[in-house]
Amino acid sequence: MTTHSPALPSDVLLRAEHLTVRFGGLLAVSDVSFDVRRGEVFTLIGPNGAGKTTVFNLISRIYQPTSGSITYAGTGRAPLVLTAQPAHQVAGLGIARTFQNIELFEHASVLSNLLIGRHTQRESGFWSELCFTPKVRAAEIRAREKVEEVIDFLDLQHYRDQLVAGLPYGVRKVVELARALCTEPELLLLDEPSSGLNVEETDDMAFWIQDIKNDLGITVLMVEHDMGLVSKVSDRVLAMNQGEVLALGTPREVQNHPGVAEAYLGSIDDVSSLRRPAGAQPARRA
């Protein structure tokens, strides 16, 4: 498999083509294709077992596709066949991810967790780090400045020196989001960002996602079950069913697809939550 790919359209950051994944006799993803455009929030929806997280794991390089490919066109580099890259290089390509089950260092402070995320961008060698050379000191200052910017952006000042183990669940979700932002990604993968959150915390998450897109210019690819959040923040939605693409379009277009209500959302009342009123925006924090 080659590492470089033909050029993508200028507005496309990531392209998945004919992705198929088999686990033994189980077909988890079947011929899935889609584009993620620069500067949008693109959301995968569907019931448990639909293949959404498997697609995420393909992009994160946790899984290797049985067939198909993913092309990624980060700024300043030729488009790459992402499925030919090793997992440890993904963050360096400008892709960051959060997880449905929070993956933080619980017995370290919020600041330390964010610095760990930031240090994935360090380029100094082992001996330079060991000797703490002037170049390393300068890099450490820049890292701490970036971390403090993210702390301010997500209103985490009150928690910066607290241990993660003592924080409420909703704050931990924001800390994990902050750690991903510390890597300065072009593409942010959010796996169930509202999982475990109450209504107020979910509204806050919608606010953060909109600001990440609008203020930081980061493209967001999200897996989400909360249709209220999906309708508030998504530019386009891909509905999956049994590993296949069922519908792709705006929240309204996906809502109107004849198979979506029955396959994913149950009753017509559930589907109505996908409708986004004209000009609606997430409520901002007081």
Automatic annotation (TrEMBL):
InterPro entries: AAA+_ATPase, ABC_AA/LPS_Transport, ABC_transporter-like_ATP-bd, BCA_ABC_TP_C, P-loop_NTPase. Keywords: ATP-binding, Cell membrane, Membrane, Nucleotide-binding, Transport. It comes from the Bacteria. GO terms for molecular function: ATP binding. Pfam families: ABC_tran, BCA_ABC_TP_C. Residues 14-267 form the ABC transporter domain. PANTHER family: ABC TRANSPORTER ATP-BINDING PROTEIN (PTHR45772:SF1), CONSERVED COMPONENT OF ABC TRANSPORTER FOR NATURAL AMINO ACIDS-RELATED (PTHR45772). This is ABC transporter ATP-binding protein. It comes from Comamonas faecalis.
